[in-house]
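agent> Task received from the user: take the single chain below, predict its 3D structure, and emit structure tokens. No templates, no multimer pairing.
agent> Plan: (1) validate residues, (2) run structure prediction, (3) serialize to tokens, (4) report one or two observations.
agent> Step 1 OK, no nonstandard residues flagged.
tool_call: predict_structure(input=
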Amino acid sequence: MEAVIMILVLLLDLFSKHLVQVTESLHHVVLINGFFHITYAQNTGMAWSMLSGQIPFLSLVSAVAIGLMLYYLYAKKPDLVSRIALSLMIGGAAGNLFDRLYFGYVRDFLDFYIFGYDFPIFNIADSALCIGVFLLALASLKEEKKNYGTDKMDR
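)
tool_result: status=success, residues=155
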């Protein structure tokens, strides 16, 4: 199941980026005026363009993170929610790593305006990473709550 999630995220991410990149008419499309646009952008950094131009460093960090998540996923055998979260995060990290290594930048295109704020443009990989982090946090809280209840009963 984990490999399927990783591969689906990677393929959906790369396909969507390719489609927007090669289709000139998709470089800026207003889907919901004042809320959701498709805006093609090339990001040489990470979130909010932090560390712009640091492609080798960001690539190394991504590769190490993918390796560590794969190790944890297959060696530690976490619970179902954590496995899904890690699979989403690995697929997302792999999609952005591919872009950094192949293009020298990450292709972004999802452009939201939230309450007048032009949120930084992102992609499917970024979405998978954020959803994965959220699910992992939930799983950690659930585990902590379970352990807290067990600790209280041991007293």
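agent> Step 4: summary for the user.
Strands lie at 28-32, 36-43, 106-114, 117-118.
agent> Done.
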